[in-house]
Amino acid sequence: MTRPVDFVNPLIDTANRRFFFFSSACRPFGMVNLSPDTVNGGAWGSGYRYDHETVLWFSHVHAWQLAGIPVLPTTGPVQGHLGAEVYKSRFSHEKETVRPGYHALFLDDYQVQAELTSTTRVGFHRYTFPEEAEGDSIPTILFDLGAEVGPSQMSDCQIEKVTSRELVGYVENAPTIRRPKPTRIYFVIQLDQDFNQVGGWRDGELLGAIEQLDGPGIGAYIQFAPNQETHTQDARKPGRIIQMKVAISYCGKEQARLNLDHELSHWDFDKVRAEADEEWNEWLGRIEVTGGSQAQRIKFYTDLYHALLGRRRVSDVDGKYIDNTGDQPLIRQVPLTVQGSPLYEHHNSDAFWGAQWTINVLWPLVCPEITHNFCNTFVDMYKNGGLIPRGPSGGNYTFVMIAPTSTPLLVSAFQKGIRNFDVDAAYKGMIKNHDQAGGLMSKAGYEHDTCIGGGLEYYKDRGYVPTGIQARAYHTQGGTQTLEYAYCDWALGQMAEVRSNTHDADILNHRAGFYEKLFLPEWTSEGQNGFLRPRSKDGSWPAEYDPMSPEGWVESNGWQNMWNVPHDVAGLIKLLGGRNTERDEKSGRERFVERLNWVFEKASEADFLAPHGKHHTNYLDYGNQPSTFVAHLFNYAGAPWLSQKWVRRVMAQAKSDITPYGGYGGDEDQGQMGALNVLMAIGLFNVSGGCNIEPFYEITTPIFDTITIHLNPTYYPGKRFTITCQNQDPENVYIQSAVLNGQSLERPWFYHKELAQGGQLELVLGPKPNYEWGSQPEHAPPSMSGSHQEAPNNRIHPE
Length: 799
Description:
By secondary structure, the chain is α+β, with helices and mostly antiparallel strands. The chain has 18 helices and 33 strands. The chain is globular, with a radius of gyration of 27 Å. It starts with a helix and ends in a 33-residue tail after the last strand.
């Protein structure tokens, strides 16, 4: 029987992606992310790249703004001091096996079979060296600690011999423009047999034997005495086996040793490999599907794999974690249960920009415990450093991207009943982010030292963030900032209403309507009634507006951002739908649908994608966050059949490739595109990001016969929720009717609380649209009113 883990192909799209995209020998959300790197230097275009024919090393951390501990088994003269471009080895995909939790390949230049697996915090290596280990064939393992790995240069390193089977030390990731403080990753390395020499190098100079070596630009190697009696039992592959464990911690060497002792106290490589395989299967099996093609199942479980892969744990087995929010790093402790285990774990993470349409929807369905971890990570960072982050890296604040993107994650968790975190502290921290200098709305991308680029005061006083703010920051594009601030304000306002913080709710809901400040009506011969446009400090709009221009928009353009009002689609329809007159028979909804459909027709000509860094060159870009919800807007405008049509088209044209040369079509961003693809495949989504007082799911057409979501009983009373599709066929794109728990469902959405109770959604599909199902105004999903009264003042009070 083929299990979910057996469908995963980690090599999909590896010819194109960034450093942290690929990590093979690791566990779900693992601290250790062990895998080969074929290209080095920078966050983009580095790591494992399928078309490169040489391996530089096997490194242990592939995380947001963090990397390190590269190792390579070799034979022959020591070449570590000459750099990876000299000591690297050729390999071929014909002699390579890649599965979740396991990677094996053959190093042609050294005739070494390398196998990699891991626990959550310990990398496990098994090397089979050539049988004759004499002279130039003596087994040697290089530790190129000072090398630049992916996005990180190393500002300091240390390695020390403890015994003839153990080394300890650290690598220090130097500050970057994104992560402004250095971050140390400590390690303990153990071998299953004695090495007889430890040597080192510094800045390209070979030093000979060492006991300890410190500083940047260093590396080390260990060599083994020849002819020891550790050989394979397989006569077809004779050779000498050497095994190595590498445990890591952000808190110290002894913490790394604690992780090692707790997670990997034996030397049974195959046992760990099997356990990794089973753990991945358990996580992936939380959504079971039947039907669909073989290729669709491969892509589906690979997408789910990426959604569960990229946002790494950074706390130790005992709950200790590094707090790098202050002047000096501090080791802190997660609260423990009565039994002595941590109540939650800390994570490292890229931004949550756009996550309201991806992992914020998927994680509460399949792994609410991870959402719980992140909520607590955010709150701890607020208590420690005074600010809820939007992209924590090794205990650092990174201020990646824009807006308080942690707000939708916290609010959606709260609204779905994931409340086992300090809700009061979280609320106060979010209020600070939304209302005070020094909070996330006052800081633009990577604005570490000032509070200018976010334009918060402009936003509060004028209702929009203008273009042209000069700041030492990235992403100071006022159009996007205004729209995202309005959405985040609405999200926090929903939580304020549940908490009976009435004054705050009034202010936040008022500000949620600020998107209207960007609307300039403009009647054209095509019937297009205006755009949302960036505005300057004097309140004016551009004299000549090109909606394909990126000016004023973050990684996007005017066409893509015209729809970016996820909390108030009904209000947006009123703005963009056009004017009704006695001579005009079209309703505002019809105009909205007509215009949106035209955009999809145009975007389809380039497969709904644009090159990374040139996101404005297509009408939509489903390879980047700002466009990822747009196809679902038809559900709000009385044309759900067009959501069904275009979601399927986007999947087919942009998301279905299962080769190394496609499948994500842009920046996968630590699980965001994988999560989006999973949601589209199972036919569930939420444009407003799960932040409504009563969260809900919008429905499109699944690609499988049945989908069974196994629910976590800690959070949801139901055991499972099942979606079935009658008449499933590639041509049957359109929903004809729906039944939810035995009752006819006339609208294209249902409440989260209905899913949480368990049950069944039954869909009947057909080749032609059912223009009646879900088409009436009362069938539209919930949306904030398009009318906004002036608030008495514009200051939020946290109490």
